[in-house]
Design a protein that fits this description.
The structure holds two protein chains of two kinds. Chain A is α/β, with parallel strands linked by helices. Chain A has helices at 44-51, 84-95, 99-110, 125-138, 155-168, 181-187, 205-214; strands at residues 2-13, 16-28, 33-37, 59-64, 143-147, 173-177, 190-195, 198-200. In chain A, the strands form two sheets. In chain A, strands 5-6-3-7-8 form a five-stranded mixed sheet, sandwiched between helices. By secondary structure, chain B is mainly α. Chain B starts with a helix and ends in a 6-residue tail after the last helix. The chains are: A alpha/beta, B mainly alpha. Chain A binds chain B through residues 11-12, 49, 52-56, 58, 68, 70-71, 75-79, 81-82, 86, 89-90, 93-96, and chain B through 9-10, 13-14, 16-18, 20-21, 24-25, 95, 97-102, 254-260.
């Protein structure tokens, strides 16, 4: 279970501060798929960073009782000057996995071929998404945090992602940030709307999505 | 106990992974690769040693001048380079914070340990080469050399833990750091023996913690003839409070770190 209790997060902005999260409460039970929607700048990525422990809230608490992945997105989590293989080596080392297992999974899943020997900073965003997915799926977590990378890549890659995430790992919890309502409807059991720094949830998914559409 | 040993296992795993990563990003796998880690301190020590030899003749304070300069300069370069490596270390490594088992103090520790290993390797290398040439004396007591290194490093790392979070709060610190470390040079103990100074100046330089470590190292090399001046407690008594302050500041700054 993951529990966010009254999260507040603000960032320095010029001489003042801008408060992005103004007391967010959220509980994710094991196996639950929770979608997070909201307009640009509503704090979706900020929230997922607090859940993943990448940034710490100014006040409030995140209580994690299951292993949680790092937020899967375009940036972060990689060292741009290192090659794809070196990044995989590093991930294997810090999570205590056998490198050869990770290596073969990454090669097969990402289909990046020789590009894995190139520094990650030379990758396109599609290639980055492939590597990001490959690395985080190579490590088993109870909960995956997914920040908008779902819609990247070609149709074939999307199919692979869906298979690995929603079929093979259908029993895991997920927190998914997306602007694509059909993905949200298809996958998520609950939807949270971030608005004015607060998390809103209606009785049904459709009600929440409708409120989002009215914004 | 099981809990502790598991945590310790994770800690060791993380530090090892971070060190290998830092080595790869900094030195790459081209030409001599990881050996570059001792390249810079080695060049510094040898070249400055030769310059002093040319300027001041073969002896200083009754000992060989090259050995004197090398033994002082390598720890001094450690002192300076570990400071500059700790400036903005968190921002430079913010991608690492995506993994929750990595704490920001690990980032600092790894950077410092790599500097320490590199400089100690350079020190050993110079000692062996100069020793083979008959210039570097057989150390009087190796345990004092190691103890001196320990004191010197303890103080350097303690300062790093304060400097790193400070440099994140304000860019002014980043600009001031190089000149400050330069001004610290006379207080590093690298270029004098305390016993050769005037009594009132001795009194002043002994307020500087690294001087004690340096005197210990030199005592370990040259023996009692240099009349070393050091305290076993002073460096620790200064370093530990600094480190406690630094760790508290790291904890505090972690809350404000913005990760892309």
């Amino acid at each position: 279970m993951i529990e966010c209790r009254n999260l507040h997060k603000s960032y320095r902005l010029g001489h003042g501060r801008r408060e992005v999260l103004k007391g967010v409460n959220l509980t994710v039970s094991s196996g639950e798929k929770v979608g997070i929607i909201g307009r640009n700048g509503a704090g979706k990525t900020t929230l997922i960073k607090q859940i993943g422990g990448v940034e710490l809230p100014n006040s409030g608490k995140v209580i994690c009782r299951m292993s949680t992945s790092w937020p899967l997105g375009f940036n972060g989590a990689f060292q741009g000057s290192l090659t794809g293989y070196d990044n995989a080596r590093f991930i294997a080392r810090i999570y205590g996995y056998n490198y050869s297992d990770i290596q073969s999974f990454v090669e097969e899943f990402s289909e990046l071929g020789g590009a894995l020997r190139m520094p990650v900073k030379t990758y396109s965003s599609g290639m980055r998404a492939r590597l990001a997915f490959a690395l985080s799926l190579a490590i088993e977590f109870d909960c995956y945090l997914i920040d908008e990378v779902m819609l990247v890549g070609d149709a074939d890659f999307q199919r692979k992602c869906r298979f690995e995430l929603f079929e093979k790992r259908g029993d895991r919890a997920m927190v998914i940030v997306s602007h694509d309502m059909s993905t949200i409807r298809e996958i998520c059991g609950r939807v949270i709307l971030l608005r004015d720094g607060l998390a809103l949830e209606h009785e049904t998914i459709e009600d929440t999505i409708e409120e989002y559409n009215r914004l | 106990m099981g809990h502790f040993s598991k945590g310790w296992g994770v800690q060791v795993r993380v530090l090892k992974a971070l060190m290998l990563r830092e080595l790869t990003t900094r030195f790459g796998r081209e030409n001599i690769g990881f050996l570059w880690i001792m390249g810079e301190p080695l060049l510094f020590a040898i070249l400055v040693g030769l310059v002093w030899r040319a300027m001041k003749g073969p002896f200083e304070f009754g000992v060989d001048i090259v050995v004197f300069v090398v033994s002082g300069y390598i720890p001094l370069v450690l002192f300076r380079s570990s400071f500059s490596r700790s400036i903005q270390a968190f921002t430079a490594n913010s991608a690492l914070l995506y993994h929750r088992q990595i704490k920001i103090i690990d980032i600092l520790l790894v950077r410092f340990l790599l500097e320490l290993i590199g400089h100690m390797m350079a020190y050993l290398f110079v000692a062996l080469v100069l020793g083979a040439l008959g210039i570097f004396p057989w150390p009087y007591d190796i345990s004092f050399i190691l103890l001196g290194w320990f004191y010197y490093s303890l103080f350097s790392f303690a300062i790093c833990t304060v400097l790193a979070p400070l440099s994140e709060t304000n860019e002014v610190f980043e600009k001031l750091a190089p000149v400050t470390t330069y001004l610290m040079v006379p207080f590093s103990g690298a270029f004098f023996m305390v016993s050769a100074l005037k009594k009132d100046i001795q009194h002043i330089v002994l307020y500087s913690p690294p001087v004690h470590g340096m005197e210990m190292m030199r005592y370990g090399i040259f023996g009692p003839s240099i009349d070393p001046q050091f305290s076993y407690t002073y460096t620790i008594a200064v370093s530990l409070p600094f480190m406690a302050l630094g760790l508290a500041m790291c904890r505090w700054i972690r809350r404000d770190l913005v990760v892309e």
